[in-house]
Each structure stands twice: as C-alpha cells, then as structure tokens.
Specification:
8-stranded mixed β-sheet, 10 strands, globular, binds S-adenosylmethionine
Length: 246
C-alpha cells in the first residue's frame, strides 16, 4: 500500500515538473540563443575563453536532464559554464581542463566550489564509475580555436579522434545507466567545404555504446546574411547538440 502511494506521489511530481516545462518555447528542438562574446565575458570575469557556450544552453540541458543533487560533469570545462550553472541549479559538479589558466578561470567563476582538475580527461579516475547523471561538453577540435600552444591539447591535434574516443569512453564509464551525455559541436569548413565532423562523433559515440536520443539545433543568433549574399552561399549559423543516453 505504502509503495503504491509513493509511486502515485512520484507520478504526480513528475507531471507537475513536466507542466512547469511544457509552456516554455525551449521544449522545441531549435533553440535561438545568442552566442557568447569573449569581450563581454572578459568584462564580467576579468578573463575570457574563446569558445564558451552560453549559460542559457547549460541551463536548459541541466533543467531537462537532471534534478537537484545530481552530479554534472564537463570533461572539457574551459571557462566553467557547465559547472557554474550546475551549482546555481543546486547540482553537484566536476570538471576537467588540460590548461591551468582555464581551470583557474573556472575556479574563480564557481567561487572555489565543485571538483575541478587540471589534467587530461582521458583518465577521470577521480570520478566514481556509474555516478554521473549528466555530462555536458563542447569538445576541442581541429585547430578551430587557439586554446594554447600545448601539443597535448586536443584542439591542436590534426587527428583528434583517438583522444576524443578515449575521453568519451571514460564519460560512458562515469555515467549512471540512464544518464545523459549532451555533446555540443559545430560543422567545420575545410577548403571551402563542410567536413562531417559532427556526424562522425555520433558514430564514434554509438560504437562506445551510447544511444542517440535526440538532436537540438542551437541557432547562434549571429547574422551572416551579408556574407551569404556576397558569396551566394548559405554558411551555417548554428551548432548541434547531440543528446545521448547510456
Ligand atoms: C570548446 S572548449 C570548452 C568551453 C566550455 N564549454 C566553456 O563554456 O567555456 C574545449 C576545452 O577543452 C580543453 N582541452 C583540450 N584538450 C583537453 C584534454 N585532453 N583534457 C581536458 N581538457 C582539454 C581546452 O583547453 C578547452 O578549454
């Protein structure tokens, strides 16, 4: 009897939470969110990162795929956007970055809270296996941004796939069964043509064991209309967020 009551209460709670979310336009799979301008970030934090994603992206993903008290991981935390928002929403958080300057920036942003490590996330033995509810990350790739001159930084490697594979395998190990992995990635132009990098990562994750649940198009809200008119082409104004489940 008690068990049945408990299930009913849980069901009602779930419905209430769903009702709270359902009127929000971000339950659509296209999100229009203005991208971060490093100049403003520098103004707010005193320092900046060249590839931060907006807090709003982390806010929506954390609200949708976790609850208070859950652990949220970012294996490429950069300026700590995921960690900052996770703490603000009452979650616990862990992060890795290979660059000391970014870990210091993250520590500053979260006022010393959260568990943050300056090392490669290929090995995250500080995190218990099967303990993480949600991993959100935006990986480094193909020299698109200059994070540092460190040859160990995946962003500086011509072939990032083996290292990304190791990190994502580690993410898989750390996630709880039923936990989510949200991977934010953009299309990359090489010699005038888009490569298939975002889609290759889907296959890489599927081979590890992740199941693709859905995709979100993040429309970055920047206008490249002039460029498109001048070049008679359509350049991409969006990034992808692949939502995987373990
Ligand atoms: C796209 S940025 C992440 C930005 C972050 N989402 C934010 O909002 O600030 C990718 C980060 O991965 C870091 N990185 C590169 N190789 C790494 C590795 N092997 N282990 C951990 N971090 C690494 C880079 O230094 C960079 O800060």
């Amino acid at each position: 009897m008690e068990n049945k009551m408990e299930t009913q209460i849980l069901k009602q709670k779930k419905e209430e939470e769903y009702l709270k979310l359902r009127n929000l336009d971000w339950l659509s799979s296209v999100w229009k969110i203005t991208t971060v301008n490093p100049k403003f970030q520098k103004f707010e934090l005193g320092e900046s990162h060249s590839a931060s994603f907006p807090e709003e992206v982390a806010y929506r993903l954390i609200s949708l795929f976790s609850k208070e008290g859950d652990y949220i991981l970012d294996p490429f935390c950069g300026s700590g956007t995921t960690n900052y928002v996770a703490l603000a929403l009452g979650r616990k958080t862990m992060g890795y970055d290979i660059e000391e300057k970014y870990i210091n920036l993250t520590k500053k942003r979260v006022f010393g809270k959260g568990l943050l490590f300056c090392k490669s996330s290929e090995d995250m033995n500080e995190v218990f296996d099967n303990s993480i509810q949600l991993c959100i990350t935006s990986p480094p790739y193909l020299n698109v941004r200059n994070y540092s001159n460190n040859i160990e930084n995946i962003g500086n490697m011509n072939d990032p796939y083996p290292k990304l594979n190791k990190v994502f395998e580690e993410v898989y190990r750390k996630l709880k069964k039923g936990g989510y992995f949200c991977l934010n990635v953009a299309g990359i132009a090489e010699e005038g043509y888009l490569n298939t990098f975002p889609f290759d990562l889907i296959n890489l994750c599927k081979d590890i064991g992740f199941k693709l649940r859905s995709s979100i198009i993040w429309d970055k809200g920047i206008t490249i209309k002039d460029w498109n008119i001048k070049n008679n082409e359509i350049a991409e104004n969006h990034e992808y967020i692949w939502v995987f489940k373990k």
